[in-house]
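Notebook entry, structure prediction.
Reason for the run: the old model in the group folder had no record of what sequence produced it. Starting over properly, with the input documented here first.
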Amino acid sequence: MSALVFATGAVALWSTNALVGKSLLASHPVSQVQFLQFVGAALVFAAIRLMSREKATAIAASTALAPLAVGFIGLVGTMVLQYIAFASMPVIEANLVAYTWPLMVAAAVIAFENPRRPALLGLAAALGFVGVALVISGGRDRTWFQGDLAGYLCAFGSALCMAFYSVMVGRLATSPDRLLLPSSLVGVALTLIWSAREGFAWPTGVDLALGLYLGAGPMGLGYYFWSRALKLGGSGKVAVIAYLTPIASTLLLTLSGERLTTTAIAGAVLVIGSCIAVGLERSEAENYV
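New structure, fully documented this time:
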């Protein structure tokens, strides 16, 4: 039950990410939005770390490298690539492509583990990637790659990073706050340098609050809740909840005025349906075991 509560909290926060990010990217460069995000996330992870009862212990450098790598790829890699994609292509399409990470996790399970029904998992994942192709091909002008090619590559890269994080985080003994705080601080430093190169014109008022919300909410608490859920309940049982994210986020984007063509809608149905099918299969497999 605790795992499902944490997973539901993560999904609720992640569902607002694309909508709020779209509004900020309309008037601010990616570098500044990302800097505010990482600042907000670092504050949340630092606060959680201070409230944690876990005592700090000395860790060998060789032992610490794996958690640092997982945290950096999962947090910095996922979010930076995702927001570059948001700025380079229609946000609603970038969001769908970035949320193919559950299908990538399914492919990893087929390749490296011994699932009960590999054929079913493979079929669901394959249909999901067909849906991605339809989303990409369903551009407003009936052409492939409505946005920049770099945007689509970044969206796929973001999905790969999140898939890697979801597979690895449950296998590490490191607590989520100790895993994510160093990565968020690295993100702050990198995006500060990135912003400085493009010039300082920091958002104020509502935009500042929204930028910090993206960091404290979807990035900070969202990642923390998801990491706790994976450690408590396993990736299969909480996956069904997590795969609701593309449904909720796509709905919010549609209500805000974003539109998909008929072809892209068909692709979105395949992506979301495949994610749910994969989640149900993996949850059933864990219950069976």
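Summary: The chain has one domain: 2-288.
The old model has been moved to the deprecated folder.
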